[in-house]
Amino acid sequence: MSDDPPHAHDHYRDARYYDHAYSRYKSDVAFYVELATALGGPVLELGGGTGRVTIPIAKAGVSIVSVDLMESMLQQARARIAKLSRAVRDRIELVEGDLRTLDLDRRFALVISPFNVLMHLYTRPDVEAALATVRRHCAPGGRFAFDVLLPDPASLALNPNRFYKSRPITHPRDGARYGYAESFEYDHDAQIQTTVIRFERLEDGEELYDRLMQRQYFPRELEALLHYNGFEVLRHDGAFDGRPIDGLSDSQVVIARPRAQ
């Protein structure tokens, strides 16, 4: 991943903070579990992180191979999986790998890439390489499901020189209270939004910074990328409950399948 922009993976180096920050985000889990149980597995998860979606799928009785590039995320996933029952543990295989080059020489009924993973593909060749990986691993009749954020024009137009404050948080690194603020800078050419997160420890003012870089996909652009890379889009919704994309949508939720060659 040396060709990725600087700081592209900063947000994922502290896996404990990642779990803390997204512990309440559950709207996608039921969607992927339901899809996995309907298709029966096995499932390949590209960008499995710390197991937020992986573990519920395994608990539902479906075998899953979870791939991630970041050793920090895999270590946290191993720690979480170690606490599970033997039967659930045996359904999970963790693999360190890059979704652009992965080749397991296996086929899966379902390939998933939850929670905006594809937003970390910053160029068209990266997207095409990842979609080739999906085609390579989809069994005949298999499905590919993923979600990415719907670009928010108001967010993309925010002043990059200003930090927008939110409520203080307790940071798991030391249990201290920190002020929390974010700034947003959008590269209109590359379609990459960089979020800089500032943590300011309330007791002494010490500052920590984190960065999150996300490639923005507009709906018809996303549809074209899938089409010209050999996929048929079956669903393209604005929420995990199937609502259409509209002005209130936060996400794009896609179910596709490779077209017959």
Number of domains: 2
Using the CA coordinates, give the radius of gyration: 19 Å
Share of β-strand residues: 25-35%
Tally of alpha and pi helices: 8
Structure report:
31% of the residues are buried. This protein folds into two domains: 183 residues, Rossmann fold (3-Layer(aba) Sandwich), CATH 3.40.50.150; 63 residues. It is globular and about 60 Å long. With 261 residues, it is of the alpha/beta class. The model has no long low-confidence stretch (mean pLDDT 95). The longest helix has 14 residues. The protein has eight helices and eleven strands. The strands form two sheets. A seven-stranded mixed β-sheet has the order 3-2-1-4-5-11-10, sandwiched between helices. Strands 6-7-8-9 form a four-stranded antiparallel β-sheet, with no helix packed on it. A hairpin with a 5-residue loop joins strand 8 and strand 9. The chain is 26% helix and 32% strand.
List the helices and strands and how they pair.
Layout: H1 15-21, H2 29-39, E1 43-46, H3 54-59, E2 64-68, H4 71-81, H5 86-89, E3 92-96, E4 108-113, H6 124-137, E5 138-149, H7 153-156, E6 164-170, E7 177-187, E8 192-201, E9 207-215, H8 219-228, E10 231-237, E11 251-258
